[in-house]
């Protein structure tokens, strides 16, 4: 504990006799610094100034005041209270001693001094004082250390808590869009199911279209930024959805969560039922239908929304999500692009599943057949082409229209063998027609899903080869929506088919969402205006304008224009005047089996 560099301690000697001061000074000066005072006033001044003495030797009898009084004053002031005071007193005045201790003295020494004992006592007191001081210092230091450590611990705890919060946030939020992860929605939904069982709520699944194109044109980095921007718009718009479940806690608010890729989901309470839920969620369509303003470009992204409702369609998140997904797939073909789950559209519902099994058998057991509908060149009146249309005669349910089973076949994958069957059957029939002198092109319908089959091109070419038919005699009809569903893959397949010489026709044109200008970049030969416009064009001006616009544009692009759904002579005439090339419809001929068609050919006069 002893520090060699330590400063000498300081002793204040208070005595009105200079001799006493001189004696004590002489005895002490080798190991302390001595200061002296002759009066009580002086003593107080020195004691209160810096550096303060470490010990005071105080004579009881002073000229100006009593030593006890001086000691009392020293002990009553905070700056001097700690300084040990030793009274120096004549041997016979022992009552001085007791009253000295009462006012706070530490010790007393009697005069005349026994120098060695005096020195030893003073040394002992100074050492005590020094140790006391040192302990005080150490305590202070320790306090400081503890304080610092507490502070740094607190800081560490704080940053650990923040890191934990960040990790938790990252685990629950999508890095790219910053939107909450679907796990948070799961929690919110199971809370709702637990606290309000049976309360009607909807799960919405929102799927964006058009990102493939943006990624391909602008690159993934920009694609991601556009996705982020759009998800923020969606998130903002979701605040207007009545009854939407909040998925954040601690005062934060968010409704939309990212499921994966370009799929988002949210849930909202809707006691008013299915129709009200559809109307509520349609609020988000505006965001999906408005072009995005990105770095001065206007980008078109669209989306479809599928809904499933608890308790009608399920009582757990997974079932509801799966069913919302089924509804969303259907929504792609609807206008507006929103749809509610029903059992009828569910490929996995029991009735549908058994029907699908039967459809597979139908292919083998020849319950399927093709009907044919001719297409007439409006100017020359000659038969230009025939379209093959699929028919299913079910042994129990009777006739099932293609609009009922084809979407199912698409969802379950049965569409592949089905299309192959149609292709085979149609080309076989075409060869038979040829042999009878009817050299006609034949159109068959492809589904969106067919365009994603990697072996489609090979299959089509193999069947053409089998019947020794030129590729140009075959027209493949693909809907505008099918082309847009998976533009990249679909376009590649279409290009390959087109390059092989097969004709491509855009079916149901006008019902999808592609711009007319988009046609320029597609490998197509023909545009078929959707029958819904043609059927009403004589009574609805807006339909007539659309028909006319499509005809003009298609002619500009050197594409053949077919109008389907021609149900009367007026329409046929008007189409001719507008410059439409080909007509198809009940007015000319209904779809009929091959044998009947041969009869019709005779009557029509070919
Ligand atoms: P689509 O390709 O648009 O076929 C034309 C539909 O319009 C046919 O219905 C046809 O019967 C009907 N139609 C023709 N003229 C008129 C008319 O003047 N008025 C009215 N109201 N309708 C007319 P269909 O045969 O019921 O086929 C419905 C849809 O089923 C087809 O529409 C097509 O999308 C699909 N489809 C039919 N056969 C096949 C097939 O082999 N493969 C695939 N993937 N889809 C098929
Ligand atoms: Ca068609
Ligand atoms: Ca059509």
Question: How would you characterize the overall build of this protein?
Answer:
With 606 residues, the protein is α/β, with parallel strands linked by helices. Helix content is 47%, strand content 20%. It has 21 helices and 22 strands. The strands form four sheets. It has an eight-stranded mixed β-barrel, surrounded by four helices. The chain has a five-stranded parallel β-sheet with strand order 2-1-3-4-5, with helices on both faces. Strands 7-8-6-11-12 form a five-stranded mixed β-sheet, with helices on both faces. A hairpin with a 2-residue loop joins strand 9 and strand 10 (297-299). Helix 7 packs antiparallel against helix 8 (220-237) and helix 14 packs parallel to helix 15. The longest helix is centred in the first third of the chain and has 58 residues, at 115-172. Bound molecules: ligand C2E and calcium ion (2 copies). Ligand C2E binds next to strand 14, helix 13, strand 16, strand 18 and helix 18.
């Amino acid at each position: 504990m002893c520090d060699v560099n330590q400063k000498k301690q300081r002793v204040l000697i208070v005595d009105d006799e200079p001799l006493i001061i001189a004696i004590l000074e002489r005895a002490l000066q080798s190991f302390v610094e001595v200061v002296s005072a002759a009066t009580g006033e002086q003593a107080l001044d020195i004691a209160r100034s810096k550096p303060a003495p470490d010990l005071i030797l105080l004579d009881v009898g002073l000229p100006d005041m009593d030593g006890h009084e001086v000691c009392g004053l020293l002990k009553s002031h905070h700056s001097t209270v700690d300084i040990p005071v030793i009274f120096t007193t004549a041997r016979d005045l022992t009552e001085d001693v007791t009253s000295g201790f009462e006012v706070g003295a530490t010790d007393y020494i009697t005069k005349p001094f026994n120098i060695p004992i005096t020195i030893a006592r003073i040394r002992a007191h100074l050492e005590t004082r020094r140790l006391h001081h040192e302990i005080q210092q150490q305590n202070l230091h320790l306090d400081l250390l503890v304080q610092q450590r507490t502070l740094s611990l607190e800081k560490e705890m704080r940053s650990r808590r923040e890191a934990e919060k960040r990790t938790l946030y990252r685990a629950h939020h999508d890095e790219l869009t910053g939107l909450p992860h679907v796990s948070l929605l799961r929690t919110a939904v199971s809370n709702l199911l637990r606290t309000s069982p049976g309360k009607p709520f909807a799960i919405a699944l929102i799927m964006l279209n058009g990102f493939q194109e943006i990624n391909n044109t602008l690159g993934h980095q920009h694609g991601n930024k556009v996705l982020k921007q759009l998800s923020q718009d969606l998130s903002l718009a979701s605040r207007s959805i009545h009854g939407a479940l909040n998925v954040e806690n601690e005062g934060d608010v968010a409704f939309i969560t990212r499921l994966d890729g370009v799929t988002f989901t949210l849930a909202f309470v809707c006691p008013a039922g299915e129709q009200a839920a559809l109307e509520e969620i349609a609020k988000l369509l505006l965001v999906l239908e408005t072009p995005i303003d990105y770095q001065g470009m206007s980008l078109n992204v669209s989306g479809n929304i599928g809904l499933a409702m608890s308790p009608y369609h399920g009582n757990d998140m997974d079932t509801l999500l799966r069913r919302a997904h089924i509804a969303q797939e259907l929504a792609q073909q609807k206008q507006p692009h929103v749809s509610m789950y029903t059992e009828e559209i569910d490929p996995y519902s029991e009735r549908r599943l058994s029907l699908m099994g039967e459809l597979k058998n139908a292919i083998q057991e020849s319950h399927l057949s093709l009907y044919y509908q001719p297409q007439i060149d409006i100017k020359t009146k000659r038969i230009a082409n025939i379209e093959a249309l699929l028919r299913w005669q079910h042994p129990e349910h009777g006739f099932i229209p293609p609009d009922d089973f084809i979407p199912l076949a698409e969802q379950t994958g049965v569409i592949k063998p089905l299309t192959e069957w149609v292709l085979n059957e149609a080309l076989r029939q075409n060869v038979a027609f040829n042999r009878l002198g009817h050299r006609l092109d034949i159109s068959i319908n492809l589904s969106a899903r067919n365009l994603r089959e990697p072996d489609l091109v090979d299959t089509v070419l193999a069947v053409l080869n089998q019947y020794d038919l030129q590729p140009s005699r075959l027209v493949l009809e693909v809907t505008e929506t099918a082309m847009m569903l998976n533009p990249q893959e679909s376009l590649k397949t279409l290009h390959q088919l087109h390059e092989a010489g097969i004709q491509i026709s855009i079916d149901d044109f006008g019902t999808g969402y592609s711009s007319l200008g988009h046609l320029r970049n597609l490998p197509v030969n023909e545009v078929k205006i959707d029958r819904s416009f043609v059927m009403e064009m004589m009574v609805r001006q807006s339909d007539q304008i659309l028909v006319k616009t499509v005809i003009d544009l298609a002619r500009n692009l050197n594409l053949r224009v077919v109008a389907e759904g021609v149900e009367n002579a007026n329409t046929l005439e008007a189409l001719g005047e507008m410059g439409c090339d080909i007509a198809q419809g009940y007015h000319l001929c209904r779809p009929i089996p091959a044998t009947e068609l041969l009869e019709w050919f005779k009557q029509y006069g070919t």
